[in-house]
Design brief:
- With 74 residues, the protein is mainly α.
- Helices cover 69% and strands 0% of the residues.
């Protein structure tokens, strides 16, 4: 089960133009978002570690996001 709260996800989906969204679509969106966050975090952690740090910084997230986008993850 998803850890992200469903209400904000539904709100984001509606604000993005969806008039109606099924609960199953909201749940699946939450699961997919969690997978993306996990993948992004793993990538950012590798970047931080390669720089000799344990703390993930916003720059690590930006770099990881660009790499994932270039690889077709989003």
């Amino acid at each position: 089960m998803a850890e992200l709260p469903l209400a904000p996800i539904e709100r984001i989906m509606r604000n993005s133009g969806a008039d109606r969204v099924s609960i199953n679509a909201i749940r699946l969106t939450a699961l997919e978002a969690e997978k993306y966050i996990e993948t992004l975090t793993i990538s950012a952690k590798k970047i931080a570690n390669s720089c000799g740090r344990k703390t993930i910084t916003p720059d690590d997230i930006r770099i990881a996001s660009k790499k994932l986008y270039a690889m077709g993850f989003l």
